[in-house]
Amino acid sequence: LAFSLLSLRICTSRTSMSRPKNAERTLARLLLSRQQTFQKLERLQPRWYSASSFSSSSSSSSPEKSSASSNSTMHRSMSSSFYSSSSPPRAMTTTRMPRNRYEFVRAYQTTRELRRMAKQRYTRIERSKFCTSNFHSSNNSSNNNNNNENNNKKMKDNNAKLAALRLEMNKRNISAVLIPSQDPHFSEYVSKCFERRKYISNFTGSAGTCLVTKTSAMLWTDGRYFLQAEQELDSPAWQLMKQGEKDVPSVQKWLRENMESGAALAVDANVHSVAEARQLEELMRKKNAGGRGEGGDGKLVKVEKNLVDLVWENEEGEEKRPGMPKAMLRVHAMKYAGKSAKDKLTDIRKEMAKEKQECLVVSALDDIMWLVNVRGGDAECNPVCLSHVLVTEKEAFMFVDRDKVNEEVAQHLKESGVEVKPYEDVGKCLREMAEKGTKIWIDEDKVSVNTYDEAMKGIKAAENNIDESRPAKVAKSDNSGGGNDSNQQIKLGVSPIPMAKAIKNEAELEGMREAHLMDGVAMSELWWWLEKQAGEGNKDLNEFNVGEKVSSLRAEQNGYVEESFPSIVGEGPHGAVVHYRATEESARKITKDSMVLLDSGGQFLCGTTDVTRTHHLGTPSAYEKMCYTRVLKGHIALDSATFPVGTPGMALDTFARQHLWSAGLDYRHGTGHGVGAALNVHEGPQSISPRWGNTTPIKDGMVVSNEPGYYEDGQFGIRIENLLICREAKTEHNFQGKGYLSFECLTFIPIQTKLMDLKIMSDDEIAWVNRYHEQVWEKISPRVQKEEVKEWLQKATAKISRE
Fold first, then answer.
1. I need a surface site. Which of 336, 658, 695, 793 has the fewest CB within 10 A?
2. How many Cβ atoms are within 10 Å of 123's Cβ, its own excluded?
3. Residue 773 in contact with residue 793, Cβ under 8 Å?
4. Which of 86-90, 234-238, 403-407, 695-699 has the lowest mean pLDDT?
């Protein structure tokens, strides 16, 4: 039996594709041997290793438990998980010879996939065993049992969802469907009714793309979510594609290499940008969708109804798809906005005139909120409202649910020169403008291809019905390449709004400063409370209730609205999950020996905050201190940087990583992101990261985060984050008059000194810590009301030295 299984493994890993006929015969013999092996195993161990588990009609129930030795327990659970929930393709169960090379390839790929799933499952089991044995297993055993039950239920539910989705695909002769995270406005955090990727995969991270074919389901996500995705994609039906890792293809590359000739890829045109859709159309137009020639018959299908919605809307109870959000709009006060909506529209029209455009299409929700000085509540943690805006030379139209517009907001919009229209009318209005010959400006990365198609319908209608009523100025459009040709009726180019929004005016910056002072008071009390509770041995203290406490303390501050993102509270190994979100079921206990990473933020009427601190409540190891100190050194280096005007964020990223690199360490996320003023906590176009594609310079008035980190999988996570304002630097010289910039710190919350290894810190770095803590004490202590908290703050900001 062992020889038979080993032979199959050798065949599937070493068979040369250059000799397919020999390979077919070899594999066929081994498949027959494999089937006979399963039958023999069934006779030997009928209770746990049933050959029916490998048949195409296998039940979804798990095999009975066996009293066999503990060494085989893991293998039994693996075989049950792999085969009871999703049957292998026919190529893996048939006993006849493969008829052609295609069937051989199917059998080869399927066997390789089973080996991959076995390895992935084994890794998860081993990691789970390691974490449980090393981190308070006795305190969390009941949670683990609950998690196992919940995961089993989710796995069954997920398989049913995939089966229902594939049924809808088969009805329409669809080979694959692409499911992105975004809504029709390309938001990072979307309304619950648009959480399609989360519904179909159970993955709750804010970034990811799913691809479901007739035989496989894959999720692409970035390094922030690798561990989280491994835990949440518990069904063997899903494959995690670690975006950016070596030998992991992008979605487009996978489609090129794996889609068959004539295959149809389905997308929802409402949630794919113009740029995305064009790339996919070009890819599917190629023969075999692989770029090996022109004239293929593969195609991109823009479905009328989102296929995931067809499945989701048939659910009942809590699983049923939520309706559209109904949160009311509110006016963003002039004292916080710093500029009226009327003035902002005037500035945008000047940019339109430079580009000789007559209508700007705005779909990004934070762009709209900033432009017309209103705020909403349609997405969790982001004060935005589902809407579109069209800005013309003399008018502006806001397409929004009228029920969300009260009298105050209606009056404000009217005074600003903005007319309110129904949300669903944006396509019709744009189509009419295009038909009249209006020159339209569309940001191809922030506007859906459905909106673009509506404009094209208007252009084509005008071209097909040329008469005296059609303006002579309209030239026949050729938008195959986009670009800035003034003779084209549709201009595809970057909207002027994101850059204008990113550079904050003085009123916005003053509001951000005030928000961070209030945040400093709340977070000082939080860390005092947490250390006190852990020291007293509170057995009910866990990640979830610490997250609840964070929100309640911020809510005591004036002008608090909501969290700016769901709090990330990670104890021990959960700290290594970059964007971990605790639930009551998953929450780990926090004890006097815990290492805790806490990343949280608040939305205030005056501004937005985002801060991360890592504290050890007991005695840190030398290794933990070394890692923490190197993260801190990178944080200090970026905070202290002075750089020429025009420097892009990617050039600053090395400041934060250099000290980790020198020890052979690194982290898998960017170092900094833009932050909105009483708007989205993640804002572009600027960023500080190793991604060389973003060449946007960091400019005076921009707000960015400074958050290097280090994550030891299965053990702990470290991150230190402050927000910074980019300001003009006062330098002794000014080479060729180019000008220089530096940073002003917004965040004033103590950085734990217990975790610092002063032996590897320079004198300047120690001085930076002391100066920073002196500012924290001066700015925050007068606002603290509780004496106990003030005493804690005084100790936390005490000077450090090597003596």
1. 695
2. 11
3. no
4. 86-90
